[in-house]
Q: What sequence folds into this?
């Protein structure tokens, strides 16, 4: 039986201001001292350490509340997320106006951002969602497990003492008995109708579109993501432990500059007639359950950076998602519907 539930739209735009030093080796990605943010989360060695999965889920729900669009929740006031760092680097990129300054910029931030062939910037590691709760090294700890989003687009989770970047990079395969799990972060343009996702499996942008305005000087990226969050309060046995699957959209506009190619710029974002249905199968019932997300009309004004529209989170086996809706912006007002076939 299909159970349709209207889910509240959660729009996320995290704006942060951090201080970046003049040398990449001096870049401050976190306070090494432990700070108590609440009784459920602390800053440890520059990354967030959550007491358990429930504490992580609770803070994530705070991050995606509309009232936190332009400010951080108090739990994170001392924490510099990867998103904060990336936004400040983007601001510095606006001052690049020569070949020399461009080369200096790339060298300075080679470990933190990727400069694409068209000179636009993208995350060096992780996803738009993970950038909210990971530090400048892609790290977060939930319960007994530390998860690292690596520069080669993997997600490595392990138990035990904190590992260096070199040690994490040397982990290549999953070893469940040792408490080590490795998965990939992929980007594709098709949506699977059946997605059997147990434990720490693949995270992906399962559909992407790129829209341009009439003069080709502004463009809008729209991506549909399926984020698999590994459970850290269970046995991790694939036959017993499902994934916590999070569907969300991202929307981001860029402006073509005279020098330096494409840059993220301030604009208004619009969302019209979003209607998407996703299906899950739980372990307490063999009958799949469908959930409907519907957003007739919404806008976010004067925004810089990626906007996240949270579709919903469920635990179980994701069976697929389909639907349609329009994502457009002040610079790209005529973008067509974003269709996800059934």
A:
């Amino acid at each position: 039986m299909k159970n349709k539930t209207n889910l509240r739209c959660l729009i996320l735009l995290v704006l942060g201001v951090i201080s970046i030093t003049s040398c990449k080796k001096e870049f401050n990605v976190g306070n090494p001292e432990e700070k108590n943010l609440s009784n459920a989360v602390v800053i440890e060695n520059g990354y967030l350490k959550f007491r358990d999965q429930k504490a992580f889920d609770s803070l994530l729900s705070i991050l995606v509340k509309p009232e936190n669009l332009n400010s951080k929740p108090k739990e994170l006031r001392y924490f510099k997320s990867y998103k904060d760092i990336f936004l400040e680097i983007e601001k510095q990129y606006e001052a690049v106006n020569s070949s020399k300054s461009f080369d200096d910029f790339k060298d300075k931030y080679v470990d933190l951002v990727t400069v694409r062939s068209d000179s636009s910037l993208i995350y060096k590691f992780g996803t738009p969602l993970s950038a909210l709760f990971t530090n400048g090294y892609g790290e977060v700890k939930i319960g007994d497990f530390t998860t690292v989003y690596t520069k080669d687009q993997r997600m490595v989770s392990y138990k035990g003492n904190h590992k260096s970047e070199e040690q994490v990079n040397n982990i290549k395969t999953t070893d469940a008995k040792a408490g080590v799990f490795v998965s990939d972060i992929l980007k594709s343009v098709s949506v699977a109708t059946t997605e059997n996702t147990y434990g720490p499996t693949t995270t992906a942008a399962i559909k992407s579109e790129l829209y341009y305005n009439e003069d080709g000087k502004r463009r809008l990226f729209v991506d549909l993501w399926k984020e698999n969050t590994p459970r850290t309060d269970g046995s991790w046995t694939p036959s017993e432990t499902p994934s916590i699957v999070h569907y969300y959209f991202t929307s981001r506009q860029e402006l073509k500059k005279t020098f330096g190619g494409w840059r993220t710029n301030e604009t208004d974002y619009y969302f019209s007639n979003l209607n998407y249905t996703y299906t899950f199968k739980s372990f307490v019932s063999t009958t799949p359950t469908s959930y409907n997300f519907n957003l007739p009309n919404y806008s976010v004004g004067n925004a810089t950076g990626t906007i996240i529209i949270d579709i919903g989170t469920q635990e179980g086996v994701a069976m697929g998602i389909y639907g349609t809706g329009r994502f457009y912006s002040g610079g790209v007002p005529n973008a067509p519907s974003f269709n996800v076939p059934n």
Residues 82-93 form the longest helix (12 residues).
